[in-house]
Amino acid sequence: MDPQRLTDTARGLLGAVTRRAQDAASAVIGGSDVDELLQDPLLVTSLERYAVEHGEPLEQVREEAAEHLREMAASHDPRATRSWDKLGSWIMRAHDVLVDEEDIVRLKALDREHSLALVFSHRSYLDGWVLPNVLASRRFSPLYTFGGANLDLPVVGGLVSRTGVIFIKRATKDIPIYRLTLRAYIAHLVKKRSNLAWSIEGGRTRTGKLRPPVHGILRYLSDAAEASDGPDVYLVPVSIVYDQLHEVAGMTAEARGSRKRPEDLGWLIRFARSQGGRLGRAYVSIGEPFPLRERMTALRAAGNDTSQAVERVAIDASHRINRATPVTTTAVVCLALLGADRALTFDRVLDTVEPLARYIRDRRWPVAGAASLTDKSTIRRALQELVASGVLTVFDAGTEPVWRIAPEQHLVAAFYRNTVIHILVERAIGEVSLLDAMTAPDGTDPERAAWERAKALRDLLKFEFFFPGRDAFEEELRAELALMSPISPAAPGTLTPEAARAILDTTDLHVAHLVLRPFVDAYLVVADRLAAAGDSAVVEADILDEALQVGQQWELERRIASAESVSLELYKTALRLAAHRGLLGGPADAAAEVPSQAVSEPGTDSDGDGAEASGTAYLGEPLGARRAAFLVELQDVATQLDDIARIEKNRRSARGVR
Q1: Which residues of 147-168 are buried (b: 16+ CB within 10 A; e: fewer)?
Q2: Which domains, ranges and CATH numbers included, belong to the chain?
Q3: Residues 132-178: pLDDT tens digits?
Q4: What is the DSSP-derived secondary structure letter of residue 373?
Q5: What element of type H or E holds 402?
Q6: CB-based contacts of 125, cutoff 8 Å, min separation 6
């Protein structure tokens, strides 16, 4: 379809939607809910208490609450839903949606008796159409979806509210009555046994991997579930992943410093137009649901306060989303080409993908569409589709075609690669830890050295990835060790330097340099800028600007392995870690209280393993010395990743593979 026809189609559909919205404008959105809620004992009591504590007239407080309710209240109007779905079907034309129907059958059984709270991964604006349509087409109970108020567009927003979308503000710190009202509205929906859905990340990921969870809605929901005497609310993790997405290029441009354009009607038209080319499938996978009230009760019994319990529930849900996320062929192809950072022949791509496919099979990770990752036609089709979308280029004028990442497309390829990266992190940490066992000095326990390195890496990357608690983490590492090589020692305490070397030399899959390098290199840039500041306090915005500039310089100098390490998203996470370790100086280090993504299992202590050692070992030293130590720590890890890359290169050379 030519661009003008696309524009006309978009405007026509939006015009129909807008007319329907204008027809409905005189109706009060969720009017009965607003009236009913204003009489709700929970809200009445909360507003009365607020009025007394703040010395404000009760009627004024009630009027503000009513205004907030009118903004956020949603309803389900069949005509509005049909209009919005018609636009959604056209906007979704780039993808076919694939759902595991067995998951749906199990979830439908829960839907008959319980409220479902679906927390989904958020990689695209399309998610807002995908999940509601999947459930509605299978006759689930009506779904109320929380969305950002930035998407409450003029005229259209009123219609969208009539399809079950609850628009909420993100910044509510200075609007206490808004928070009271939202809490009461969520409790009201739970009382009515409504189904709810929201992105647990609070916004779209810019890197492809799951972001840290946001706790606000979950906190209000858990309070409502605990206060209810009805059936428990089931928290349902949902993974939504795509073969490719048209909007990734825009998100990655933001990661390189471009300013995000605000959402408006013009944005919606541009977004609709951009979905023209076919990009494969969208995969919806349901993780293991769990009862929220029951989980909160167990966590409280284990000594957690409400905030700690909510945090652990959020992390658990995120773990389950990751566990449900299928491996796409796009992701493994991008992993192979990003790791090489040069052009590869088809056989060389297969040579990288095949051991990874065996590993995925052995770990029983789901594969999107049940595709065979060792099937040549499957890999070739993925290469062709990535060339068609501009992520890869192919040169076929020589003796055989070779593929490589296209210029300025490293962050796009990394986005797709990162949808699968969570399955490889423990493996990568295990590989690096074996290096410490190999080089353990005489008189020291090699296994202890490996375990200390693993804990240090877990601490270093805890704001980047979701890690289990100490015991589960150790079990994961032992499972990885067993998969690496048939000669891996089975019993604890039997790892020797010689065994560690033999494992690394004989395994057919090394991933540490592929998986960890982009993050370590990005952290190195930030650590370098902090070390250069000596003992002086720093401004985060200034450090981010410097890091972007220095990162681009280091990329040109080949001091970092790839352009994907020049990323504001990675630099921001590195600064969170630095703040957590007290390395920013001044008020910025208050960010040290931000919870990490490493969390213990229910019933255990927070970590209990000394994993914070690298963050606290230098607290008695001057700020400049601690920053320098942080830089050295990262340089040491980067050196170890070079060692793993060298071992992999030697393995390939021994097999006659370039």
Answers
A1: bbeebbbeebbbbbbbbbbbbb
A2: 3-324 (3.40.1130.10), 329-422 (1.10.10.10), 425-658 (no CATH)
A3: 999 999 999 999 999 999 888 887 888 999 999 999 998 888 999 99
A4: T
A5: strand 402-405
A6: 204, 247, 271
